[in-house]
Amino acid sequence: MKLPPAACLFDLDGLLLDTEPLHGRGWWEAAAHFGTQLSEAQLMQLKGRRRLDCAAQVDAWLAQPVGADALLAVQQPIVRALLPDAAPMPAAQELVAHCHNRGIPMALVTSSSSEAVAFKAAPHPWLELIQERVYGDDPELNAGKPDPAPFRLAAHRLGLNPSNCWALEDSQAGSQSALGAGCQVWLVSPKGSDQPDLNTNPCAINSLAVVWKLLT
After folding, report:
1. Residue 177 shares a structural domain with residue 113
2. Is 69 a catalytic residue?
3. Which site from 20, 48, 126, 171 is most exposed, i.e. has the minimal number of CB atoms within 10 Å?
4. 124 & 188 share domain
């Protein structure tokens, strides 16, 4: 049975903001620009990972690799044009507000850089309630997701044991990272259950509304 959380550690892309399809479109169009069509399975492998890690992976998939810089020069303008229109994920605002009102500590644990988060979060002032942040380019971060380092660092900064924290994720890379850190993991997936098995880790659910209801 999952214990009440000492803190909630939130991913950002695909978990709080509906940005993953936009990033995926950017990678697909960048790869197509260089003559390679990426599959849905390949795009899924990029979810939750840092930008440079994604660029290196996409470059390896190209029929003729061009380098990460060339890929990003195509991908980034596409994504930045789309991101301001990204909507909050269902129940994201309500869950963050509830944690804030209940005094449950929160941290943002994202593979995005600090600059990218500032850009994506600008239309969403409710995200300012999450004051502790671990970014993909955090100077104290030794490795990104799926390595456990991001969630370990977030728990450390909150002064908590990761095993007492709930990690909320939408990607396999993020879920693997949180599990490796020892967190109690909620994996939000369209195939998840609205009546989760609380004895499993990760616990698959279909919406953040499930967690919100459990905390109210």
Report:
1. yes
2. no
3. 126
4. yes
